[in-house]
Predict the structure.
Amino acid sequence: MEWDIVRPLLVQGKLPNLASVIHSGTYGKLQTVSAPNCPRVYTTISTSTRPDEDGITGFIVGGITANTNMLKKEPIWSVLSKNGVSVGMANVPASFPVMPVHGYMISGMLTRGKDCEDGVLCAPKLSEVEGGDAVYPAALKTELLSKVGDFHIDCVRMPSAEELNGHESDVIDSWLKKVQMIRDEQTKLFDYMMTNHPTDFTWFVQSCEDRTGHWLYPIAPYNAGYNPKINSVRPNAFPDQYIAFDAVLGAILKHVDDSTYLFIVSDHGIKPLREFEQTDPHAHMDHTKTTPVVATHDFADGDDVPGSFIAKGPGIKRDSRLMGLNASVYDITPTILHIYGIEQTTQMRGHVLTEIFEKTPAAD
């Protein structure tokens, strides 16, 4: 979630649901880790430990696609489950293969399957998953295929330079249509699970915004990697992703009342390439370094691409802004545990974000 893109859309009134949450709660930037990428940071969020401690340092670890078998520290879903809090999860990066929880888990980014055995930035359908379980409990898979349909897990792979060459407009439009189709599938999944399988703690993730930003960030000709055949085709493609996300948020908000805590968290932002600090500025790790990209987030200094944090709920300050980078990805899990009256474990490096509350919520 990139505030530089989101703020103008808020001012223009194009993100009514997000604006409503911001005005009802506390928001600000979220300090991330160095060289942030999704599996690296999402695991930091879930364990409140450093990537070198939790076992998942990136997309590939020791030549193997990152997976839950690599976890060395206990994630939030395990802590909550052990304390009797029911857990519901869908599309969370690096959650494949799924783990037993007191509730349900549907995997996300890095799920392996047909035509994407490496599991990196691809989108197998639920029926096409291979090499592990994408759904817990196993019986839920049959229900999902029947009631929700054979939805895609994660967002679609970015096209390669070869696929784009000479067909830029058609490929971009076709890709964006598939992105929206996948988002519609995921929205249906989210709504179905909240309606039919409500849990105490629910964690859903959207990732198409990230994927789109990498190669369709609205840059100017002077930016590194600018290609008029690509970057002038759909200049609103990336901002439009946040407008589409706002519609997903609207579906979520139907299930949120005044007694519900709602957190909106992004693991990092994204900025246009800066030629002087890129060794290979025009490619992405996907497609064996052939996808042309114009924006990235894995800068050595994570403070260049802070994430975002928005929270509302009982006792949380209204229309309040967190200044600077005082909140970090390490603090999300300790704060959530505190709301449930659960002590953070000794492994955790974050702290409770007491500054977001009117007063510190009493433990039950």
About this structure: Residues 3-356 form a domain with the Alkaline Phosphatase, subunit A fold (CATH 3.40.720.10). The radius of gyration is 19 Å. The chain is about 35% helix and 10% strand.
